[in-house]
Amino acid sequence: YRIFDKFTGTLEPTFKVINLLYSKKLVLHATEGSAELSMEEEEVQPFRGIYRLPLNVLKLVLQWGNDESEVTLQLKESDIVVSSKEEYLQVKNAVSRSTMQVFEEGYTIAEMEKESFLKNLDFASVCLEEGEKLEFVVYNHELLGIGPAGSLACIAKLGSSAFDRFIVGGIPYTTTRHLVKSLEFIECEKLVMKLGEEYVHINAERFKYTLHLDVHGTRGILNLVKFAQLEEGININTLKLLEFLKKAYTLHPRARIRMKALKECWEMKAYGGGGVYMTKLPYRLPFKGYVEVEVNRFRSALRRMKKHIKLAYPGETLVFHAEGKYLVLKCFTR
User: Fold this and answer.
1) Furthest-apart CA pair in the chain: how many Å?
2) Can you tell me the distance from the alpha carbon of 117 to that of 166, in angstroms, rounded to the nearest whole number?
3) What's the whole-number mean pLDDT along residues 146-167?
4) Which of 6, 65, 109, 326 is the most exposed, having the fewest neighbouring CB atoms within 10 Å of its CB?
5) Confidence band for 169, pLDDT divided at 50, 70 and 90
6) pTM reported for the whole predicted model
7) Run of H or E including 39
């Protein structure tokens, strides 16, 4: 229940449904609009059609139990009966007239460790907002997640690939968050990504995600992949920077941050809520021009990196990076 509940999110109540169908085994299926999640259960007696089970019905029966609570499902003509040791609930007219599209498995393009995939996917998407996309790209035999957000981008290494380089496609920010939140509850160590026609599967033991891709790509995405190869930089502690960003966020959650390099330090300014907050940070990496970025995006990304990281200026951009995570900030000259 919890996995499907997290996957279907809260934005669209009509998605809070599990579909039950028979395809050699019992299959549980749900959608959140741009992605689908299915799970194969143990063998049951074959049946025809698709039954729709609202998640709030399951919640009624399960909410007083624990994570190990068991329920029994019975399919009776057009109805579903959900029962536990103490409770019984009947869902009337549960048969759906819709059909289920079958997606071919495709070929493997990447293999991932679940824990690092989750942490890095969370980082790559955290700077995005509703209406924006996370891009999957294979570059130098690594699967990258790239979240471009104006003058800022988050890039993360998600897994290894047998392929050299190609653009896989993009998924909506909301789908990324549903993927992260539901995967947390799936017990497995390895994930496999397989490419189909304008979709990818992510296989996690009995669970299979089908992510529908926007294959047109985000403008300038190929200009960002090179930063995932960056190793140079000076070692810095981000504690003072995070303190500044916290104060700037208090000034206004949408405050604009402007950063400029002076001879011995960086000048930091936050504009928002009718006020201006300014301080200086002891970073001695010179860069041309200035950086301007929204505090909420910058702060959310930096908080998901460790405190001791590297800072580089490869020209026209500042890059904070550590452990397969890259926070890229564009420098403006005028």
Assistant:
1) 78
2) 19
3) 94
4) 65
5) very high
6) 0.91
7) strand 35-40
**Cβ atoms within 10 Å, residue 180:** 17
H-run or E-run covering 8: helix 2-8
| DSSP secondary structure, 245-304, as one string | HHHHHHH-TTPEEEEEE-SSSEEEEEEETTEEEEEEE------SSEEEEEHHHHHHHHTT
Q: Within 38-147, where are the H helices? A: 55-62, 114-125
What are the tokens at 13? 């109540």
| CA separation for the pair 8, 17 (Å, rounded) | 8
What single DSSP character describes residue 4?
H
**Which class for 77: exposed (0-12), middle (13-18), buried (19 or more C-beta within 10 A)?**
exposed
What is the distance between the alpha carbons of residues 162 and 59, in angstroms, rounded to a whole number?
42
pLDDT tens-digit series, residues 10-24: 878 888 998 888 888
Q: Is 127 helix (H, G, I), strand (E, B) or coil?
A: coil
**Structure token digits, residue 108:** 């493997």
Q: Which pair of tokens denotes residue 226?
A: 């090179």
Cα-based distances in Å from 66 to 2, 6, 63, 171, 237: 11, 17, 8, 33, 42
The tokens of 130 are what? 């509703």
Dump pLDDT digits (tens) for 17-74. 988 888 888 889 999 999 999 998 877 788 888 888 888 877 777 765 555 567 777 7
Identify the CA nearest to 49 among candidates 82, 26, 70.
26
Is residue 250 very low, low, confident or very high in pLDDT (cuts 50, 70, 90)?
very high
